[in-house]
Amino acid sequence: MLSLNIQKLVQYGIDTGLTPECERIYTTNLLLDVFHEDEFIQTTEDLGTIDLETVLKELLDEAVARGIIEDSIVYRDLFDTKLMNCLMPRPAQVQSEFFARYEKSPQDATDYFYKLSQDSDYIRRYRVKKDLKWKVPSEYGDIDITINLSKPEKDPKAIAAARNAKASSYPKCLLCVENEGYAGRANHPARENHRIIPITINDSAWGFQYSPYVYYNEHCIVFNGQHVPMKIDEAAFRKLFDFVKLFPHYFLGSNADLPIVGGSILSHDHFQGGHYTFAMAKAPYEQTFTIPGFEDVEAGIVKWPLSVIRIRHKDEQRLITLATRILAKWRAYTDETAFIFAETDAEPHNTITPIARKVGDTFELDLTLRNNITTEEHPLGVYHPHAEYHHIKKENIGLIEVMGLAVLPARLKDEMALLAEYLLDGKDIASNESIAKHASWTAEFASNYTFTRENVDDILRQEVGKVFVHVLEDAGVYKCTPQGREAFMRFIHTI
Questions:
Q1: Order of strands across the sheet with 251-253?
Q2: Using alpha carbons only, how large is the chain's radius of gyration in Å?
Q3: Whole-model pTM?
């Protein structure tokens, strides 16, 4: 059985282009060595349709049976990555192919690299397809919602192993270039099948890769070759546009550089982008204005729940210069009547979440104004999801959410299924500990519907989407009200 599954895996590598035909025997021998096996029996039978997930599962079961690995999702993931690396081209080969295709077109290069990142199982297609995804109409456009199910839950044995593992600072974080080819450990994922494309932006060395969890189409990560912290400044704007000029079919954005309103990794300078058009990018101007000294730059407030200034020009340098000015003004801006404080107790609060793209021959830069101040009433942040919505979304509103994609916790899948059952049967939601947190929320809308088995799931999805829109409104430093817009314009007049 081992020989058959090795043969299937090698054939998969050849079929997908990961492995050239001339390396069939070499790759087979690499895999035999991983299993400490000296014998190989080749079948002449038709291998049929090769399902990667099935083949890997059977190979992992064999590794467990032989005592090579423990039967744990963490150790299985570490080992199947080692198996896939036996099929992979070396980094130099991937880079050579990428840049050869880039000469034809940037999109041809990214198409190749995205397919390779999936075929290699770095992006686990069979897990990503389990994610729940839907759209919800709103006054701001169609909002994307996803419940992420592609990150496996660690079992207790793996959690204990990670806790007891020897401390290591190599690689320093998940975004460091040293992850390429790294075998991983109990508390750090394997990246042996991972490949990075080196690029130069702002005259410095950066890496281009895809996210293994692909929250949207061609979800990429662009990261500094050095382990340095996130910083929004003039150089950051320049880096965004340098990338967009290299790959004009991609957008690129940055998380803010402060806690609460920033991303999950502030310690390593990086951006996220991709080949997807979010609702925010489609949103029109709500109001346009002219900035003195930049009369040639199109500018306006975007019709969006967060507070977004959009600037457009065919010369990206004009946008970089203006964005730097807006950032400096915002960093220092205080408006007590609007509860905007540049700092309290010497702690800075104002920053920006920027997103760059090219539309036709014109560059665009969206500047989302952020503030991370906290109060006794809102200890997690005034401009953060408020407590009444924490049953759906409690986590930070980072770049991806800012653009209009809710990344919701996996627990919601089972909770929504249970809610559907209780709503259909008229049961008391508050009586069930696992969904009691949703009781007051469902009570607000339940009387508006007649629930059936055909409509209950869709109703719940739409109502979850409405909550996320409210979450985005909470994150807006200026509310979408006449008073909010008046306060927004007070800031704009200072630019």
A1: 197-201, 204-210, 220-224, 270-274, 251-253, 350-359, 362-371, 308-313, 298-302, 285-289
A2: 25
A3: 0.94
